[in-house]
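Hi C.,

You asked whether I'd gotten around to modeling the 168-residue construct. I have! Everything is below, sequence then structure, no commentary in between.
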Amino acid sequence: MNICRVKGCRFSACHITARHHCGSCGLLGHGQVECGDSDKIARLSCIDGMISEPCSIRGCIDPSTHTSAGHCCPYCGLKEGHYLRCPCVCAVENDEGAFAHHYIIPDIGKYVHQQRGLGCSEYIRSNKETGKLEYFFMHSDGWGQYGKENSDVPALNAFTYGYIKKLI
């Protein structure tokens, strides 16, 4: 049964149309075929199905929009109940029932890159000389799309220069 009505959706039985992630722009509610066409997107916003078996992944913040098989990790984008064993960020339930997030710590001379949503990223490195953790936040507006004078890419390159990306 197809719940998602986005044209060409490969996981149409796993999530409602409003939770479909566009492969072009990353926004919700449409796909690459509809991306940039406000009429097609508006038509899709009026269509939504019901999930017969809501997500049962513990800690899921919006279970009525997808099945357990359609659960997508908010940190790295992997599917199928991956959230609680994410190699990027571990969500650990504490005694009060709240979730605390623990980052993977890079080895000295390495860095990790983690998506933070809406095109933003963070980079964490372990300083080669001091061993201390250092952090660089890359905003989605800092990739140079608004001119070289507004680009944070040179600062990011300087931050990662000489460091090796830690594979997780």
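If it helps when you're writing up: The helical segments are 38-45, 153-160.

Thanks,
B.
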